[in-house]
Here is the input.
Amino acid sequence: MTFSELQNKDVINIRDCRKLGRVCNLEFDECKGCICKIMVPGSCKLFNFLRCDPEISICWKDIRQIGPDIILVDID
Here is the structure.
């Protein structure tokens, strides 16, 4: 799977069925050569004068399933 394929998938939190967004970045462990975290952009609120939340950082261990269209995660 390529990074561009990950970017096209919606990230859904299975705890509250909330759509978090799409993958915008990855964090790698250089020594092990594996992905540690995926990043999803925070939401922007228009009526609070375009206030944007920080990126959501999701540990690889919190990813439950990667399907053809979505990535299911389990975060608080």
